[in-house]
Amino acid sequence: MTARIGVVTFPGSLDDRDTQRAIRLAGAEPVALWHKDKDLRQVDAVVLPGGFSYGDYLRAGAISRFSPVMETVIEQAKAGLPVLGICNGFQVLTEAHLLPGGMLGNDHLHFICRDQKLRVENAETAWTGDYRQGQEIHIPLKNMDGRYVADEYTLDKLEAEGRVVFRYVDFNPNGSLRDIAGITNEAGNVVGLMPHPEHAVEPLIGTGRTDGLPFFTSILKKLVNA
């Protein structure tokens, strides 16, 4: 039986179908989840995709955090369910306090869309096992509220515990503190990042590379070997 990975659709999600395709290319079964349903349909992992849920009103991810599905996601993530938040999904994870810190508007006050170089800082999470620590990859980035912020204590704690998963290289596209592009929780089952790995899974799209595919093969291997 193949692993089943749920992809939540909120009002305003843009990249749910792309994420489902990436999951399918990795060899797992994508399962569509609707934001109003608490039932996760017995999935083995969950992805919160990119987009502009609820139009980013109040704050990006602030309303989606209270969707019925998130009640179950929060509960099961605390019990060990692997959860990946991409862009808007990362924002939702911070609003839900599954990840520390928060997201503010880009420091240049403009929407940005570019191919972004990242360095893998932690290859031991549920979603990064197929990468190497120190590996540099190229992943598409597109956001308006992508500036990661946290107080100095939290930043120091993330660094000391190896919970910075990805860091921007050569260019910080949004003013994120300490060039942080993605982080994980203490258990390593919840990961959030601003760039979009689902747009880098086939040579003909995105960056023209497949640097994003290991996110999805990593979790598949993790689940199969569990």
UniProtKB/TrEMBL annotation:
<comment type="subunit">
    <text>Part of the FGAM synthase complex composed of 1 PurL, 1 PurQ and 2 PurS subunits.</text>
</comment>
<dbReference type="Pfam" id="PF13507">
    <property type="entry name" value="GATase_5"/>
</dbReference>
<comment type="function">
    <text>Part of the phosphoribosylformylglycinamidine synthase complex involved in the purines biosynthetic pathway. Catalyzes the ATP-dependent conversion of formylglycinamide ribonucleotide (FGAR) and glutamine to yield formylglycinamidine ribonucleotide (FGAM) and glutamate. The FGAM synthase complex is composed of three subunits. PurQ produces an ammonia molecule by converting glutamine to glutamate. PurL transfers the ammonia molecule to FGAR to form FGAM in an ATP-dependent manner.</text>
</comment>
<keyword id="KW-0547">Nucleotide-binding</keyword>
<dbReference type="InterPro" id="IPR010075">
    <property type="entry name" value="PRibForGlyAmidine_synth_PurQ"/>
</dbReference>
<comment type="pathway">
    <text>Purine metabolism; IMP biosynthesis via de novo pathway; 5-amino-1-(5-phospho-D-ribosyl)imidazole from N(2)-formyl-N(1)-(5-phospho-D-ribosyl)glycinamide: step 1/2.</text>
</comment>
<keyword id="KW-0963">Cytoplasm</keyword>
<dbReference type="GO" id="GO:0004359">
    <property type="term" value="F:glutaminase activity"/>
</dbReference>
<feature type="active site">
    <location>
        <position position="196"/>
    </location>
</feature>
<keyword id="KW-0378">Hydrolase</keyword>
<dbReference type="GO" id="GO:0005524">
    <property type="term" value="F:ATP binding"/>
</dbReference>
<feature type="active site" description="Nucleophile">
    <location>
        <position position="87"/>
    </location>
</feature>
<dbReference type="GO" id="GO:0006189">
    <property type="term" value="P:'de novo' IMP biosynthetic process"/>
</dbReference>
<keyword id="KW-0658">Purine biosynthesis</keyword>
<keyword id="KW-0436">Ligase</keyword>
<keyword id="KW-0067">ATP-binding</keyword>
<protein>
    <recommendedName>
        <fullName>Phosphoribosylformylglycinamidine synthase subunit PurQ</fullName>
        <ecNumber>6.3.5.3</ecNumber>
        <ecNumber>3.5.1.2</ecNumber>
    </recommendedName>
</protein>
<dbReference type="GO" id="GO:0004642">
    <property type="term" value="F:phosphoribosylformylglycinamidine synthase activity"/>
</dbReference>
<dbReference type="GO" id="GO:0005737">
    <property type="term" value="C:cytoplasm"/>
</dbReference>
<feature type="active site">
    <location>
        <position position="198"/>
    </location>
</feature>
<keyword id="KW-0315">Glutamine amidotransferase</keyword>
<dbReference type="InterPro" id="IPR029062">
    <property type="entry name" value="Class_I_gatase-like"/>
</dbReference>
